[in-house]
Write a structure and sequence with these properties.
With about 400 residues, the protein is α/β, with parallel strands linked by helices. It is built from 14 helices and 15 strands. The chain has a 7-stranded mixed sheet, with helices on both faces. The longest helix is centred in the C-terminal third of the chain and has 24 residues. About 50% of the residues are buried.
Length: about 400
């Protein structure tokens, strides 16, 4: 065909050769094809607060954000993010130089890693990990070094000795996610203090994904790593409106950190989306100032949904790791006589009319993740009850 190259070189950049269509796309398509309840992809099936939706409509009608917003984000949102960090965690950031608005947390992660990692640098990440981590590290030319969270007494825990052993002279950065997707683990004060000490001792940068910061349960506490001694100047903290306010389609995320770190991330971000989500930025600025009652009600509602699904999965015969945070439940399928999460999830829509995600996609060591399957509980209670009933009848 005219215009086609005769070269045998693959079209896709070799760094990305291992990344095909995401499992989320595959399983969501399977849900649609079979009419199954989709508990795979992590998006709510109801919208967030009406007053915040109206704030977005008002911004559209008033002509705010319909053209390119400022590169770092609209001042109202940057100011609201800085106020949120101060009020919640005692972290003071200059909204003009230490806050950057991004197209969701996914862009924030990509921009941070592209900015801070050079070819050959090692990035230590907690495994299992959100799938964009691996792709972003690969695009930067880095080498990912997984440290695996392992099941222990009903939850997945970090082995601090294993983390220390993973750091070498080539390590540039630690990529930390807490509350942790997909396991639901919330790192403790002691674990975070040890991570901070390691980062300071070895002069490491840290990127922390904290998008589930407001979804912690049963006495767990979210503690930003940037609050620990020596960490503010070496930590890029990432947040997002999607998970907290149930507007995942708006794609409004942010980065906070020192002027130098945020400047580096911004240098990359400007060549990715440049800007995005103009009118929604004004709405999210209002959302961040909602009273504490909103966050408490939101958390209580998600905890109730977690319990409905966890109890249903237990009754269906799964081993259930009840999460301390996020809106995902990880299960072990071996009590059901199964051991291959991929095969199990691909058959589940026909067997039970429910879609889930095999955790193995979040592991470098696919065998380590093989028996684990993730279900999302950010759905209406009646949907979760119906899913639980279908699974019990499997």
């Amino acid at each position: 065909m005219a215009g086609m190259t005769s070269s045998a070189r693959p079209l896709l950049n070799r760094r990305l050769a291992e990344f095909g269509t995401t499992i989320f796309a595959e399983m969501s398509a399977l849900a649609t094809a079979t009419g199954s309840i989709n508990l795979g992809q992590g998006f709510p099936d109801t919208d967030g607060p009406e007053e915040i939706r109206e704030a977005a409509v008002r911004a559209l009608r008033d002509g705010r954000g319909n053209q390119y917003p400022p590169g770092p984000g609209v001042p109202e949102l940057r100011t609201a993010i800085a106020a949120h960090q101060r009020r919640r965690y005692g972290l003071a950031y200059d909204p003009d130089t230490e806050v950057l608005v991004t197209a969701g947390a996914t862009e924030a992660i990509a921009a941070a890693l592209l900015a801070l990692v050079e070819p050959g640098d090692e990035v230590v990440a907690l495994e299992p990990y959100y799938d964009s981590y691996a792709a972003s590290i690969a695009m930067a030319g880095g080498r990912r070094v997984p440290v695996t969270l392992r099941p222990h007494e009903g939850s997945f825990r970090l082995d601090l000795d294993e983390l220390r052993a993973a750091v070498t002279g080539r390590t540039r950065l630690l990529l930390i996610n807490t509350p942790h997707n997909p396991t639901g683990t919330v790192l403790t004060r002691e674990e975070l203090a040890a991570i901070a000490e390691l980062a300071v001792e070895r002069d490491l940068l840290v990127v922390t994904d904290e998008v589930y910061e407001h979804l912690v349960f049963d006495g767990a506490e979210h503690l930003p790593l940037a609050t620990f001694p020596g960490m503010r100047e070496r930590t890029v903290s990432i947040g997002s409106a999607g998970k907290t306010y149930s507007f995942t389609g708006w794609k409004v995320g942010w980065v906070t950190g020192s002027r130098e770190l945020v400047g580096a991330v911004r240098a990359v971000k400007q060549f990715l989306t440049y800007v995005s989500s103009g009118p929604f930025q004004y709405a999210v600025a209002e959302a961040l100032s909602l009273p504490d009652a909103y966050f408490e009600e939101f958390r209580a509602g998600m905890r109730a949904r977690r319990d409905i699904l966890a109890e249903g999965l237990t009754a269906a015969g799964f081993e259930v790791f009840r999460p301390a945070g996020t809106y995902f439940v990880t299960t072990d399928i071996r009590p059901l006589g199964e051991k291959d999460g991929f095969a199990f999830c691909r058959a589940l829509p026909e067997r039970a009319g429910v879609v889930a995600i095999p955790n193995a996609v979040f592991y470098d060591d696919r065998e380590a993740g093989a028996p684990f399957v993730r279900f999302a509980f950010c759905k209406r209670e009646e949907v979760l009850r119906e899913a639980a009933e279908r699974l019990r009848g499997m």
